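User: Here's a chain of 268 residues. Predict its fold as tokens.
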Amino acid sequence: MRFIGLGGAAAAAGLAWGHFEAGWVQLETLPCPLPGLPSELDGLRIAHLSDFHLGVPSRGSVAVERAVEWVEQRQPDLTLISGDLLSRPRGEDQLRALMPRLPNCFAVLGNHDYNASRDPFSQAAAVDDLGPATLLADDARTVELRGRRVQIVGVDPRSFRRRLQRPERLADPDADLRILLCHFPDIVDRIPEGVFDLVLAGHLHAGQICVPWPGGRLRLAHIRWTYIRGLYSRPAATLHLSAGLGTTFVPFRFLARPEATELVLESA
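Assistant: Prediction complete.
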């Protein structure tokens, strides 16, 4: 009985920690070297947010609120959101209250927005617009920053899953910086080299539930994925993969803190 009691106490402590960590957002400023970056864009700041999953009971909504507050204070040059904004329609009011606070914001949707997942608690909640933010779905926008042309291309998650996406067709060869925004990180291995400079993605939650393992952590979700979180220099482009802010399946995170990142571009 003693061992059962100790096991129950350990399980309760683990659940309490997972509940706490789901709202313990990490706010990070990260240097992002890019080969060929024009000198005028050196120091350009891009806030990258992902995987809000609003609409389900979770401390992830606390992480989202804190991240938006931080970005609003930082006032970056661009705010880019890489999908899974909603897990249920009831989160839409909160989402629409947050979007006007994010400066110069562009976003794509993810598979959870369309309920294309195995999460039994998710419902389709895709939105058609995010005004004043710009929602991209297999289209692109170009903005002028510091006298240079910066293009953002956004991938629709439905065309990605059907392998119909061709974002390289939307790329403007005259843009000084081309950014690809997609929910799924493995798009970086599907695009031709030299078309995009930076790819921003989410989806994996850094595993969301991880356990200590010799040499690192064992992710209990998305075990076979090549990319986990952070910056990756790949032949096609530089990838930044966000751990995201919300949760799916269970309202816990363990050794996979939610995060919001400000990328500071540097000439490589």
